[in-house]
Amino acid sequence: MVEPRTLQAPASIGACMAGLAIEDAVTVLHGGAGCDIKLHTLLRHHNPTGAVHHRVVCTKIAESDLVLNPGQVLSRAALDIARRTRARMVLVTAASFIEVAGIDRERVVEEIEEVLGLPCVYAYAPDFKGDLFDGYARATTEIVRRLLRESPERAERADRVNIVGYVHDRPLGDHSGNMAELRSLLRAIGLAVNAVVLDGSPVS
């Protein structure tokens, strides 16, 4: 059975878009030179003046590095962009051929977190596993899981809700308007918004 696709853009692009929905996060796409062209063509065309120019990078890994040590190339790129932008979080995703070849995801995340002292999220979103929205959803899930590890437990409140799954694809006024309207609608029925994931806010 063929799954319907509402938007013919790959899952890795959706994962990168989720990284851009956090104001002080950076995203690393672990892939080849062709992946870099695809990434920036799609995202820059969609949002030509946005953060994709300085908050998203592709490793453009060579064949020799893929065989010898693909994790080292990824770590080096993540450390470089995070330091240059003073990021508060690093999101990593990889192209299909990287996932097929194999990479020690846990080791990469541990290394980046140890060196930078920042939370790092690995979103498994190869392009053969869905479209843009699938990739965005997987990255959002991993971001929430990572942030919950450091969040203090709070008592549940019946009058507060979290909105999860909002597709924040660019930092423009239409999304701010959507958030304001959602809060207004919830207030009308006696509820308040605790958090929106993701809404363009910083990690904090």
Descriptive keywords:
204 residues, alpha/beta, Rossmann fold, four-stranded parallel β-sheet
Plain-language structure description:
With 204 residues, the chain is α/β, with parallel strands linked by helices. The chain has two domains: 11-148, Nitrogenase molybdenum iron protein domain (Rossmann fold), CATH 3.40.50; 160-197. Helices cover 50% and strands 15% of the residues. It has helices at 11-20, 33-46, 52-55, 63-68, 70-85, 96-101, 105-116, 132-148, 173-188; strands spanning 25-30, 56-58, 89-94, 120-123, 160-164, 192-197. The strands form two sheets. It has a four-stranded parallel beta sheet with strand order 2-1-3-4, sandwiched between helices. Strands 5-6 form a two-stranded parallel ribbon.
**Could you tell me the mean pLDDT?**
82
The stretches of 5 or more residues where confidence is low (pLDDT under 50) are none
How many angstroms separate the termini? Answer: 42 Å
- Computed Rg: 17 Å
Q: Share of helix among residues?
A: 40-55%
* Shape by Cα distribution: globular
The total tally of domains equals 2
The CATH homologous superfamily of the largest domain is named: Nitrogenase molybdenum iron protein domain
The CATH architecture of the largest domain would be 3-Layer(aba) Sandwich
Strand order of the largest sheet: 2-1-3-4
The arrangement of helices and strands along the chain is HEHHEHHEHHEHEHE
User: What class do helices, strands and sheet pairing give?
Assistant: alpha/beta
**Mind summarizing the main beta sheet?**
4 strands, parallel
Overall strand count: 6
- CATH fold node name of the largest domain: Rossmann fold
CATH classification class of the largest domain: Alpha Beta
- What fraction of residues sit in β-strands? 5-15%
Count of individual helical segments: 9
